[in-house]
Amino acid sequence: MRLLGVERASALGGWLLRTLGPRTGTQRTVLRNLRIAFPEMAADEREALARAQWEQTGRAFAETAVMDQLVAEGRIEVDGLERLHAIRDSGRPVVFVGGHFANIETLAATIVGAGVPCQITYRAANNPYVDAQIRAARARYGVTLFAPKGGEGARELLAGMARGESVALMNDQKFSEGPEVNFFGQPVNAAPGPSRLALRFGTVLQPMSTVRLPGVRFRVTLYEPIALEQTSDRQADIAHGVQAITSFIEARVREHPVDWFWVHKRWPDRVYAALKAEDA
């Protein structure tokens, strides 16, 4: 991929998954997710969207190998860069939140490129060699403060925030132990971690997102910070934060549905079971 360069690597990755993705069992999950989110959408339109999102996903995976080239070539434009500079200059941490859109590596690249010390959370690959390659690829464009998910990662996040380092967390995947909130009119469980951290350190949730532009380019946007109210009911305060993040994610999905990562089961089993009942 690195020998191909940014545009050819991205095109190859997109072609591979657009060709192979619809033939996998995961295609069924993609179509079910699209039915839940967009019940009024015509079936052929959902099929076309499913194919298009496979291409986006394939491009994103291929681009990971050439992210340093992508960054060096100035393929990321930033709307709200002044917010990042203000965070950097304040010396106080924030909790960056976002979802799996377009190419999530552009978010990390933008944060570290603006000089913001930030712990970037990630789920380590099962294969240690592959994991080392992923970490090395990220190091090439400046991401060095990693915090793996799990108990050890949580301790690293707390220690980092105590030192004034921000944290970045994706908050759009299923988390069975999290509070139940509303997503596209259906119940979902979402991770309370970002809201807990913001409340503990008296800081804000800073939403970010990215969209893919023509020519393997991206626009990263920083939105208005979400300030959480601290009341005597801490669990309610956390749930409010979780819903605020989830509503932000939903709004971004509605704006650019092709950019979202549709391949995971986002809703509880009972929501998918209701789809089966409709088909019976």
- Biggest sheet strand order reads 1-9-8-2-5-3-4
Share in β-strands: 15-25%
Radius of gyration: 19 Å
Count of separate DSSP helical elements: 11
Task: Average the pLDDT over all residues and give the rounded result.
Answer: 90
Order of helices and strands: HHHHEHEHEHEHEEEHEEHH
Poorly predicted sequence stretches spanning 5 or more consecutive residues: none
Number of strands: 9
The level of helicity is 40-55%
Please tell me the total number of domains.
1
CATH topology: Glycerol-3-phosphate (1)-acyltransferase
How does the major sheet shape up?
Answer: 7 strands, mixed
> What CATH architecture do you see?
3-Layer(aba) Sandwich
Structure commentary:
The protein is built from 11 helices and 9 strands. The strands form 2 sheets. A 7-stranded mixed β-sheet has the order 1-9-8-2-5-3-4, with helices on both faces. Strands 6-7 form a two-stranded antiparallel sheet. It has one domain (6-279): Glycerol-3-phosphate (1)-acyltransferase (3-Layer(aba) Sandwich), CATH 3.40.1130. It has helices spanning 6-20, 26-37, 43-64, 67-72, 81-90, 105-113, 128-139, 151-162, 193-200, 234-255, 269-279, and strands spanning 76-79, 95-98, 118-122, 146-148, 166-170, 180-183, 186-189, 205-213, 217-222.
